[in-house]
Amino acid sequence: MADLQSALAARGLTVFTLPDKGRCLVSSRDFSSGSLSTISNAEEHEMRIFYMAGDVIISQEPYAYVSNNSSDSRCEGCFSSINLKKCSACQVVWYCGSTCQKSDWKLHRLECQALAQLSNDRRKLLTPSIRLMVRLYLRRKLQSEQVIPTTATDNYDLVEALVDHMSDIDEQQLVLYAQMANLVNLILKWPEMNIKDITGNFSKLACNAHTICDSELRPLGTGLYPVVSIINHSCLPNSVLVFEGSLAVVRAVQPIPRGNEILISYIETAGSTMTRQKALKEQYLFTCACPRCLKVGLYEDIQESAILEGYGCEDDKCRGFLLRDSDDKAFVCQQCGLVRNKDEVKKIAREVKLMSDKASTSLSSGYYLEASNMYKAIEQLQLKMCHSLSLNLMRTRETLLKILMELKDWRGALMYCRLTIPIYQRVYPRIHPLLGLQYYTCGKLEWLLGETENAIKTLTNALDILRITHGTNTSFTRDLLIKLEEAHAEASYKLSSNDDQ
Ligand SMILES: [Zn+2]
Ligand SMILES: [Zn+2]
Ligand SMILES: [Zn+2]
Ligand SMILES: [Zn+2]
User: Fold this and answer.
1) Ligand 3 centre and the CA of 265: distance in Å?
2) 311 C-alpha vs ligand 3 centroid, how far in Å?
3) Distance (Å, rounded) from C-alpha 58 to C-alpha 11?
4) Distance 409 CA to ligand 3 centre (A)
């Protein structure tokens, strides 16, 4: 712990332990660098004691990680899905080439031996969680034998220190973890192995492991990052976690003064307080007490929930939100007073549910045209039923955007992308990766359709956000910059050729 504290102190961070919250990562930033000569003294002082938006607070390689091989195969080293070759000995792990295979070899050599002796039936049970647990134990073994070096931020003691919430887990879940632990035990066959210890570690992974995503937030794998795991959750976080390959990078999205806690979000923060609290309780086993959650029950919070997850006014020009009447038989518009029959709303809701099941089946079977027609019909029903800023309507439009992209219907995709943006602006803070990515998609579509001026505006909006959340020095942001420069070049070319005429 002392080693960790001094490693963190060098980065302007410290770990506090609070009785009600457990461990917290707190900014202790106070750098007295004298080289910031181009800025004024007040600004210089601020930069020394604040993390500024876009600053990397901490970055960490995983203690152990696995690629997500359930839908399509990925390289165990870099998550690439092209030119893959299966490891011939175990027939479980894929690599894109010898570089990734070599860099994983110390660990995979042991993993390979363990997996190769499994029967085909048992091999089918190898979920990413099981494989992550096997890798966790193998890495501990290699570190204890000094085959892999340990550092202050990379050692098994940090895994030991993570919370497991064992006393809060229900019986059914514990039985499942014990079964999984049994399989890990059968794979490793270590005499000193203890099922209870592995069970506890499954519980640890459930509330501490992170889904590794690409720059566009599509899942690639799962990893355990014991220092990043110290960072607590807020539904209104001051920092964001993104990944560069398997490297976890936490960046500030707003100035964070010395003494303030570093906070990221563990869940999708678009949702009513009840929805967010439920998600946090179910997966992370705690009750959030962030400033957003503390508003629960206040008029402002009731209004927000009714807009995001409730129904819309019968008068389609009215933007009011609806609340239940006193005998729970109808909904009343809080703006114009119009009453909406509960049975009528429930009838549409049932229709939507029925159609959604069919639509998602046809989407997962790849029938994009059929799926697009179904989702358009769902959208029409939701327009009748929901508030215009409803999350359900937004999700349907997000799905339509994806389907129309698959169908290369760029005009239609752009229309749906634009329809989602006002809701994104409402449900996410000004600097949020999902808002930045949605602008980026919109800008790329505008550029493709020759709307150069619009593309410049939208790509600039994207860059303003993504340079903070994704950093300025990543290939992802550089690509965005190049697209923006091309759009500017085309706009000035168009302008000059207009002048020539
Ligand atoms: Zn690779
Ligand atoms: Zn192998
Ligand atoms: Zn909260
Ligand atoms: Zn109304």
Assistant:
1) 9
2) 24
3) 8
4) 38
Q: Side-chain half-sphere of 187: how many Cα atoms within 13 Å?
A: 31
Non-local CB neighbours of 366 within 8 Å, separated by 6+ positions: none
Query: Taking the domains of the chain in order of start, what are their residue ranges?
Result: 2-60+254-265, 64-212, 297-420, 428-501
Question: What kind and span of H or E run contains 437?
Answer: helix 433-448
Q: Does domain 428-501 have CATH number 1.25.40.10?
A: yes
CA torsion, ordered 452, 458, 459, 464, to nearest 10 deg:
150
CA 237–ligand 3 middle distance (angstroms): 9
Q: At 34, which amino acid appears?
A: G
Tokens of 122: 């048992």
Rounded Cα distance between 283 and 207, Å, is 6
Q: What is the pTM of this model?
A: 0.93
Ligand nearest to the CA of residue 113, numbered in listed order: 2
Place of tokens 């990944």: 243
Ligand nearest to the CA of 101: 1
**Among 139, 85, 87, which Cα is nearest to 116's?**
87
Residue 164 φ/ψ, nearest 5 degrees:
-115, -10
Which of the ligands is closest to the CA of residue 108?
Answer: 2
Q: Which CATH superfamily is domain 297-420 in?
A: Tetratricopeptide repeat domain (1.25.40.10)
The letter for the amino acid at 277 is Q
> Are domains 297-420 and 428-501 of this chain identical in fold?
yes
User: pLDDT 10s digit of each residue in the chain, 501 long?
Assistant: 789 999 999 999 999 998 888 999 999 987 654 444 555 667 777 777 889 999 999 999 999 999 987 677 899 999 999 999 999 999 999 999 999 999 999 999 999 999 999 998 998 899 999 999 999 999 999 999 999 999 999 999 999 999 988 889 999 999 999 999 999 999 999 998 999 999 999 999 999 999 999 999 999 999 999 999 999 999 999 999 999 999 999 999 999 999 999 999 999 999 999 999 999 999 999 999 999 999 999 999 999 999 999 999 999 899 999 999 988 889 999 999 999 999 999 999 999 999 999 999 999 999 999 999 999 999 999 999 999 999 999 999 999 999 999 999 999 999 999 999 999 999 999 999 999 999 999 999 999 999 999 999 999 999 999 999 999 999 999 999 999 999 999 888 888 887 665
